[in-house]
Design a protein that fits this description.
- The protein is of the alpha/beta class.
- 67% of the residues lie in helices and 8% in strands.
- The chain has helices spanning 17-27, 29-61, 65-115, 119-122, 125-166, 168-215, 217-223, 226-278, 284-325, 367-377, 396-402, 417-421, 429-435, 439-443, 462-476, 492-505, 518-521, 541-547, 549-556; strands at residues 345-347, 353-354, 359-364, 384-386, 389-390, 403-406, 415-416, 452-453, 480-484, 510-514, 526-531, 534-539.
- The strands form 3 sheets. The protein has a 6-stranded mixed sheet with strand order 6-9-10-3-11-12, sandwiched between helices.
- β4 (384-386) and β5 (389-390) form a beta hairpin.
- It is elongated.
- Residues 33-313 form the ABC transmembrane type-1 domain.
- One of its GO terms (molecular function) is ATP binding.
- Its main location: membrane.
């Protein structure tokens, strides 16, 4: 099977679920078209088999050896073509299924990255998780069924034409009966659509509840709220089960209709064909063909009803994806973004100015002020410029690529540690670990960088997580690196070692450290002191200690007289 594309999946049309499904089909139009043509050929060959069998039977009854041999060879050829097209069709169908499913994953992940810190405030975690677990399956199935549906529709049309040419009454039964069967099945689709939507919403809420429980289990146990949350989860789980049962009732009716109605249709066509054969209106071979046609029609009819079912499921799931794609971030891109220059980074809200290529510290009398300045400098809030150009006028993706903000809320991900620290394979892991004082952490692991770590790095202590996060930031090597309290969870000896090595690791690059640690400040090139959100003084650490009393009290932890 060909390798699926992993490049940028383009911009989907997020105005409706139907448009999104059409976008997926258009993105895979070559393989979808190939699968549809192969399905048409595959089902067409199957539709020809009953006619060929009927002719062979008639040739055997009339003892026409030449016609019998020709019919057998022709039947063999059709069988070979049917086998080859069937195998190839299935191969393309799986490709289409995977392409639609994983292209949806690409789109959702890209939107999650674009929303960034906005995502948790706009969508529950359960909604995002459910898209990647269940919705992609239904969306892939909806794209896959288009090719099989095309083949089934052509097979029904072909059989109808053949029957009309042989026996008008039997052909009319097929011509009228098939739309009636589809109408009956269609009546079940609307209630199924409503119940699937309700089930999907309940599933998203419950998944979000489960994620909250896992994330806060220790806190819940500490405050004695475990039993309360467990009871609430149990109640919501039972509500989801009840919604699932209601959905399954309609699905069972649909499944039963898919078996019962084509079966009844088979009985009717066979009975009428036998009557016509007994009256001499058709031959024995034609009777065999009619029976084979009626039996064969069960498969394409089930396929057509399956089209309605899977398209309904895909539409419900696509609505969830579209709803996520329509979420706007707190910091949208400008209509006409400008390039981001290199130069001095400045915060207009506080007056802080960051000289390029140097290690600068921001010390605030209120630590929250330093965090807010870091947010503005990294464009998590508006108010900063680089070389006079507002960051709000630059495409957010370019800002994120060149300015990296690392705080203690950043998480380590589950999986192989080496992939977490260096996801893009940039290299320099050993140097970054040494600069962050994290070499001993990796050396103590059973498989070093190949060790699989727990979610959010729970297997590491707070100080170890902090050093590993710093190493990951150094490996990324952005043009501007902003660190918020990167050493407040490590001991003094390790902190001094990190401060010295950080300066060397980021030599010639712009680095900002929000801290009040004298060990870190003594190794910086420039310090900005902020009181009440405004810049009070700027200079070297030792000069500020002598000339700015507020700064000295803050750094040396002295009580205000």
């Amino acid at each position: 099977m060909r390798r699926l594309p992993v490049t940028d999946p383009g911009t989907p049309d997020s105005r409706s679920a139907a448009r999104y499904l059409f976008w997926l089909v258009r993105r895979s139009r070559l393989t979808v078209a190939a699968a549809a043509l192969l399905a048409i050929a595959w089902m067409g060959c199957q539709a020809l088999v009953p006619a060929l069998v009927g002719r062979a039977v008639d040739a055997a009854v009339t003892r026409d050896a030449a016609a019998l041999l020709a019919g057998a060879l022709l039947l063999l050829g059709v069988g070979v073509v049917q086998a080859l097209t069937g195998i190839t069709r299935h191969r393309f169908a799986v490709t289409n299924w995977l392409a639609a499913a994983f292209r949806t994953v690409q789109v959702v992940v890209r939107q999650a990255n674009r929303l960034g810190s906005t995502l948790p405030r706009r969508l529950d975690a359960g909604e995002v998780v459910a898209i990647g677990t269940s919705d992609i399956t239904h969306i892939g199935g909806a794209v896959d069924i288009t090719s099989r549906g095309a083949g089934s529709l052509l097979a029904v049309v072909t059989i109808t034409v053949v029957l009309l040419r042989t026996s008008v009454p039997l052909g009319l039964i097929v011509l009228v009966g098939v739309p009636l069967l589809m109408l009956v099945v269609g009546l079940l689709i609307r209630p199924l659509h409503r119940r699937q939507k309700a089930y999907r919403e309940s599933q998203g809420r419950l998944t979000g509840r489960a994620a909250d429980l896992v994330g806060g289990l220790r806190v819940l146990r500490g405050v004695g709220g475990e039993s309360t949350m467990a009871a609430r989860y149990r109640a919501e789980s039972q509500a989801l089960r009840a919604a699932g049962v209601r959905t399954a009732r309609v699905e069972s009716l649909l499944e039963a209709a898919q078996v019962l109605l084509p079966g009844a249709f088979l009985v009717l066509v066979t009975w009428l064909g036998a009557r016509f054969a007994a009256d001499g209106r058709i031959t024995v071979g034609q009777l065999v063909s009619f029976y084979a046609y009626a039996a064969f029609l069960v498969a394409p009819l089930r396929q057509l009803t399956d089209v309605l079912d899977k398209m309904t499921r895909g539409h419900v799931s696509s609505r969830r994806v579209v709803a996520m794609l329509q979420v706007e971030g707190d910091l949208p891109d400008p209509p006409e973004p400008v390039p981001l220059p290199s130069g001095e980074l400045a915060d207009s809200g506080s007056g802080v100015r960051i000289p390029p290529g140097r290690l600068t510290a921001i010390v605030a009398s209120t630590p929250a002020d330093a965090a807010r300045i870091a947010d503005r400098l990294g464009r998590y809030a508006d108010g900063a410029t680089m070389d006079g150009v507002p960051l709000s006028a630059v495409a957010l993706a370019e800002v994120r690529d060149r300015i990296l903000v690392v705080d203690n809320d950043a998480h380590l991900f589950s999986g192989r540690l080496g992939s977490d620290l260096d996801p893009e394979g940039r290299g320099g892991v050993a140097r970054a670990l040494a600069a962050a004082g994290a070499t001993d952490i990796v050396d103590a692991l059973p498989n070093a960088l190949d060790t699989v770590t727990a979610d959010r790095g729970r297997s590491f202590s707070g100080g170890q997580q902090q050093r590993l996060r710093l190493a990951r930031a150094l490996i990324a090597d952005p043009e501007v690196l902003i660190l918020v309290e990167p050493t407040n969870a490590v001991d003094a000896h390790t902190e001094a070692r990190i401060a010295e090595r950080l300066r060397a690791a980021r030599s010639g690059r712009t680095t900002v450290v929000c801290t009040s640690s004298p060990l870190v400040l003594s190794r910086t090139d420039h310090v900005c002191y902020v009181e009440d959100g405004r810049l009070v003084a700027a200079g070297r650490h030792r000069d500020l200690l002598r000339g700015e009393p507020g700064y000295a009290r803050m750094v040396l932890r002295e009580e205000k007289q």
